Predict the structure.
Amino acid sequence: MKNTFKIIVLIVISSLLTSCYSIRLRSINGTPQPDPISNRDDYYRNMEVVEVDTVIKIDMTSKDFTYLIKETDKCKTGKLHTVEFKNTFGSSLLSMVTFGKKRKMKIKYVCMKPVN
């Protein structure tokens, strides 16, 4: 009984540790779009950040999903400077419970500054 409990605890702890991660991609060309009124103290200090927190629905046979970035007031050029994708335990759990049909996405991106 004690060994079974220990194994279950180890599985839960290892899944918690391995399922929470963040990946950031950054371009070395171009300048990030500035945000002079930003009061952030993290990596994105003085950058205009667009945050997307949504649940997407994917067919079980689909292998990929495309999220389109368009030219908007927050992203004047439509070109990306920095992209961060974050996966959490809740995201992994939702995907596992729905057999991969629903996935929770947390994305932050910074657009490039327009060139004059």
Observations:
- The chain has two helices and four strands.
